[in-house]
Amino acid sequence: MKCSACDRISSANRKKCMYCGGALVQDKRSGSIQCCGCLSVMEEVEIEGVFVNICSNCGGIWFDVGELETLIERTAIREFHALGISQECEKMRTLVQSKP
Phi then psi for 89, rounded to 5 degrees? Predict the structure, then answer.
């Protein structure tokens, strides 16, 4: 994400720029990029709300500044919430099974 006010790159999981408080906007590239491994044109795909470039020829992945960190953070948060839900389900199952 890029700040609309100061033009700095910021983590996509923030609502406002960490430097000036400006609004963050998706930084769009002009045109496609080439894979640094095989020079094929990469395809932009969305994963957990983060746009990354994937090479269908060699499997290479390109992350812009902050994208990998954002993706790791979002995946960890989703897995944490899923774990919390599964623990609650297990508690309920134990409670129901213990009732006569």
Answer: -60, -40
Helix, strand or coil for residue 44?
strand
> pLDDT tens digits for 28-78?
655 688 999 999 999 999 888 888 899 999 999 998 888 888 888 888 777
Angle at 39 between CA 37 and CA 44, to 5 degrees: 90
Bridge-based pairing state of the strands 50-54 and 43-47: antiparallel
Cβ pair 5, 22 in contact under 8 A = yes
**Contact, 27 vs 20, CB < 8 A?**
no
Kindly list the domain boundaries of the chain, sorted by start residue.
1-30, 31-100
Q: Higher model confidence: residue 34 or residue 19?
A: 34
